[in-house]
UniProtKB/TrEMBL annotation, chain A:
Keywords: Signal. Coiled coil: none annotated. It holds the Pfam family SBP_bac_6. This is Putative 2-aminoethylphosphonate ABC transporter substrate-binding protein. NCBIfam families: phnS2. The keyword Signal applies. GO terms for molecular function: thiamine binding; thiamine pyrophosphate binding. Residues 1-33 form the signal peptide. The lineage of its organism: Bacteria, Deltaproteobacteria, SAR324 cluster.
Automatic annotation (TrEMBL), chain B:
One of its GO terms (biological process) is transmembrane transport. Belongs to the binding-protein-dependent transport system permease family. This is Putative 2-aminoethylphosphonate ABC transporter permease subunit. It comes from SAR324 cluster bacterium. NCBIfam families: PhnU2. The chain crosses the membrane at residues 30-56, 110-130, 142-163, 178-204, 225-250, 280-300, 329-355, 388-407, 419-440, 452-471, 557-580. GO terms for cellular component: plasma membrane.
């Protein structure tokens, strides 16, 4: 009798145990349902919402958390966190920055599904599995306010060298390359096109005409659009946007050639969210993602996708320089240091 | 023999002497001892330790290894391209051309000019308010308080629209650019004006009418009275104002960031080093430099407070201004001009936030308030600010008030109480950015058992409470001093614990002051940029930070819109505060009559 009761007790206990473990399993399953992917990016906020929505629609188990700032700051942040990285992924950051970080052994190599379909020099082929993969090109340009140009009788600058003309003194704004990726791609392009010495001479001449250096790469074009300054050294997409907004500006791709950089992504080494990061990487090289990239950028990594974007300068793609990412990435730190010591304090003007 | 030798040990003697006061109080009031110790420990944790971490950090490299003066050498350009020390002599020779010399010179220049300008303007304004019979005194006072309701970024943004290259008043600058010292000084003058006015108004109200009567009976001219009676009597408030403004300006970075162009100052240098280069070590070096003016100002202010006491005696007669239509007319014009300058800053920001596309499409729109479409801003940032300010008021007020109570009303423990008071005074001398940076070092240290506090909202609230601690503490202390300590003595003789007295007597009496403190904390939490700039994360962006970031991205109109949101919120809270205080005083403070 007693033993029977004892067994029934054990059985109920067992049932309760089973039930509770099932319950906790389903609960933890519920908790695990969404993986939060922490992604550092320099892509602008209005576009980020779109990318997040499109990706999460396909992968409802992953939720992207963006940390957004300008190129220089995201790069500095990643470097500062080197010993204990917080990000799971870096996405939409300048390839030159990623290249430099890859040398610090920051990333986990991964070949996203379909990466071989991309334009060959748009992703890392130095390593067996790519450390970084490019998404789209952002191209430097000059924004000129036509009303102000007329008012001050400024000729439209068609070449970089035109900007040395003293007539432009106090009318030019340019991003500080230490904080802005757009600022850096210009400096890098000048050095690659003309060699160290000529480029630094050019920058010293340009410095005399600069009203001031801005923190972000968008601001010069926005200032030009608002008529605050006649000429803003910025990037093509921002200029095209400003024209669509009704700003009286012209976007110029200088004849000598324009600098450009790739927005690219990479997976951070030792991330605990590797599976989710790989899914996001796979999506990022897909045709679907590239169609989205093309909405505001003229050149994307997936061949045959790009359609012309409204208000981009005509021959801008043809004028893109033959960009050496290895050079730009390897010399980034040194170039920026030299730039800061030459131009970042008012006294030298 | 043995005990004798122990007693003659000098160390033991010191120990005994040092703990004697403790022993006595310790035996009588164990609970009080622990409460006070807890208060001291908390204040050390949130004030002293973080600051000492900042100090240590300036002598360390990125990995925490001691590297001596290297960070200082780096900031003072004492290193050559290979990172070798170039020698002090060489350093001295090249110092005037170095970036640090430029920033330091610029910082001193704008702070001096702003301090002189604000002190004189505020003196005129205060004189008009307290020594003349100009009409609408209430309105003048309200207008002068407006700049305090918004972050310092708001006047800077307005200046962009007023005096920028497309500005409506650009002609007034006669070809000079607003981007640089002119813009910074104008912005700082507007922003610090309410602070200066408050000190000077108090100063002017503390004068003895008998002096003026004597002067008038001797037929001394008005002008001469001003220079021989009014000004000397105002010596200390004037010095105090000068230093307060000087410190506010030299440690403010919002205005130089927005309107300063390439004009570098120390406060923007620290931002560039920490946020732009993530070079926290050099950032802490600049932080230490920024501590100096603040400490000096703090010291001068303390000295002056001590001397100020004897100015008004029991025999003093309150000054009543006599009719003088000519003087009234002059000051009506002066106050009118200053007030309209402040109002035009306010209206320009409000107007700019409602314009479709400055200056080419001036149609009105609310689209600039659609923060979710902007780079660096979102409505979430505004909600975060409300939440942060709410928590700051909710936790800060009881904490500060009860600590102030401990420092004033506990029986015995004189030295421990003084220590609490002393610790409470420190935050006044620490610029917000420096405190924020110290918090990064201390609370984000991986080995700190308290690093769980370094989590989104918590650290923002903590840092904000501490940043605005001193003024709240002093407000509480002033109120507590007005309450007779007999209450505690009577309660003790009635065998009522001090805790009960605290809740039944002290808190109800001080309710208006407690409300003052919470409103002060709330408003400052809404507007602060400097205390939180290094501490916010992507989930806890604040409205004031969003203003800065949107302006950085070139979205000036939305930045103005967000600044207006902050201003309107602060104004509403202030209004609500007035109404509640009036009702509360009517209901609970009738015994005062």
């Amino acid at each position: 009798m007693k033993t029977k009761r004892y067994f029934s007790k054990i059985r109920t206990l067992g049932k309760a145990l089973l039930l509770s473990s099932l319950l906790s399993l389903s609960m933890s399953g519920g908790l695990l349902a969404k993986t939060n992917l922490l992604v550092y990016t320099a892509v602008e906020a209005d576009e980020l919402r779109l990318f997040k929505k499109s990706f999460e629609k396909k992968h409802s188990d992953i939720s992207i958390k963006w940390v957004r700032d300008s190129t220089g700051i995201i790069t500095a942040k990643l470097l500062a966190e080197k010993r204990k990285p917080r990000a799971d992924m870096v996405w939409g950051l300048a390839a030159t920055s990623l290249l430099m970080l890859a040398q610090e052994d920051y990333f986990q190599g991964y070949a996203p599904k379909g990466v071989q379909k991309l334009v060959p020099n748009f992703y890392d082929r130095k390593h067996a599995t790519p450390q970084w993969v490019g998404q789209r090109v952002w191209i430097g340009s000059i924004c000129v306010n036509t009303i102000l140009a007329k008012q001050y009788q400024l000729p439209t600058p068609m070449r970089w060298s035109d900007l040395l003309n003293p007539i432009y003194k106090g009318h030019v704004v340019m991003p500080n390359p230490n904080s802005s990726g757009t600022g850096f791609l210009d400096v890098s392009a000048w050095i690659q096109m003309w060699g160290e010495e000529n480029a630094w001479n050019y920058m010293e001449g340009l410095h005399k005409n600069i009203a001031h250096y801005t923190h972000s790469g968008s601001k010069p074009c926005k200032l030009a659009g608002a008529g605050e300054f006649a000429i803003g050294i910025s990037f093509a997409k921002r200029g095209a946007n400003m024209i669509s907004k009704g700003a009286p500006i012209k976007v110029i791709a200088p004849e000598e050639g324009v600098g450009w950089d790739l927005e690219a992504f990479a997976i951070v080494k030792n991330t605990k969210k590797l599976a989710a990061a790989k899914k996001f990487a796979d999506w990022s090289v897909s045709r679907e993602a590239n169609v989205l990239y093309n909405r505001e950028y003229a050149k994307v990594a997936y061949p045959g996708v790009a359609k012309p974007v409204a208000n981009f300068p005509n021959r801008i793609v043809a004028r893109m320089i033959d960009n050496d990412f290895e050079f730009a990435g390897n010399h980034r730190k040194q170039i920026l240091k030299k730039w800061a010591s030459k131009f970042s304090s008012k006294k030298t003007k | 023999m043995l005990s004798d030798s122990t007693h003659s040990n000098p160390l033991f003697a010191i120990w005994k002497k040092g703990t004697r006061f403790l022993q006595k109080d310790f035996q009588t009031n164990l609970g009080g001892f622990f409460t006070l110790s807890l208060a001291v420990a908390v204040l050390c944790l949130v004030i002293l330790l973080p600051l000492s971490f900042l100090f240590i950090k300036s002598f360390q490299d990125q990995d925490g290894l001691f590297i001596g003066w290297f960070n200082f050498a780096e900031y003072f350009s004492l290193l050559d391209e290979q990172g070798n020390f170039i020698g002090l002599l060489e350093g001295l020779r090249s110092f005037p051309d170095s970036a640090v010399a430029v920033s330091l010179g610029n910082s001193l220049q704008i702070s001096l000019i702003s301090a002189v300008l604000v002190t004189s303007l505020a003196l005129l304004y205060a004189y008009g308010l307290s020594r003349t019979n100009i009409p609408f005194k209430g309105a003048w006072k309200v207008v002068a308080q407006i700049p305090i309701l918004a972050p310092s970024l708001l006047p800077a943004i307005s200046l962009f629209y007023l005096f920028g290259n497309q500005g409506i008043l650009k002609g007034l600058l006669m070809g000079e650019s607003i981007y640089g010292p002119i813009g910074i000084v104008l912005g700082e003058v507007i922003w610090t004006f309410p602070h200066a006015l408050m000190i000077l108004l108090t100063g002017l109200s503390l004068s003895d009418a008998r002096l003026y009567e004597a002067a008038e009976s001797m037929k001394v001219s008005k002008m001469k009275i001003f220079f021989t009676v009014t000004l000397p009597g105002m010596k200390y408030p004037l010095i105090s104002t000068f230093f307060v403004v000087f410190t506010l300006v030299i440690t403010d970075f919002g205005i130089p960031k927005v309107i300063g162009g390439d004009y570098s100052v120390l406060a923007t240098d620290i931002y560039k080093q920490v946020v732009g280069q993530q070079n926290f070590q050099v950032g802490s070096v600049i932080g230490l430099i920024l501590l100096f003016p603040a400490l000096l100002s703090f010291y001068v202010d303390r000295r002056i407070q001590r001397k100020q006491v004897a100015l008004v005696t029991a025999k003093s007669v309150v000054y009543k201004s006599k009719k003088n239509p000519k003087l009234d007319a002059i000051f009506l014009v002066i106050n009118g001009l200053i007030a309209s300058a402040i109002l035009s800053i306010l209206f320009m920001a409000a107007f700019a936030s409602l314009i479709e596309f400055w200056p080419y499409n001036l149609s009105l729109t609310l689209s600039n308030y659609d923060f979710d479409q902007m780079d660096g801003g979102s409505w979430e940032a505004f909600r975060n600010s409300l939440e942060m300010a709410g928590w700051t008021a909710l936790f800060g007020t009881p904490l500060i008030f009860s600590f102030a109570y401990l420092s004033q009303k506990m029986v015995g423990f004189r030295r421990t109480k003084n220590l609490i008071h002393l610790l409470s005074m420190i935050p006044l001398a620490v610029p917000g950015m420096v405190l924020g940076l110290a918090y990064v070092f201390f609370f984000n240290h991986p080995d700190n058992p308290l690093n769980f506090l370094y989590d989104g909202m918590t650290i923002l609230v903590l840092c904000t409470i501490v940043h605005f601690y001193t003024v709240s503490h002093l407000t509480a202390v002033t109120a507590l001093k007005q309450i007779d300590s007999e209450f505690e003595a009577v309660s003790a003789s009635l065998k009522v614990t001090q805790l009960v007295t605290f809740f039944r007597v002290t808190v109800p009496i001080c309710l208006p002051v407690i409300l003052d403190i919470s409103v002060y904390l709330f408003m400052n939490a809404m507007t602060t940029v400097s205390a939180v700039i290094f501490l916010y994360s992507s989930d806890t962006t604040l409205a004031s930070i969003a203003v800065l970031n949107m302006d950085d991205a070139g979205d000036t109109a939305p930045a103005a819109a967000m600044a207006m949101m902050i201003l309107m919120t602060s104004a509403c809270v202030r209004l609500l505060h007035l109404v509640i205080t009036r009702k509360m005083i009517a209901r609970t403070q009738s015994w005062r009559k």
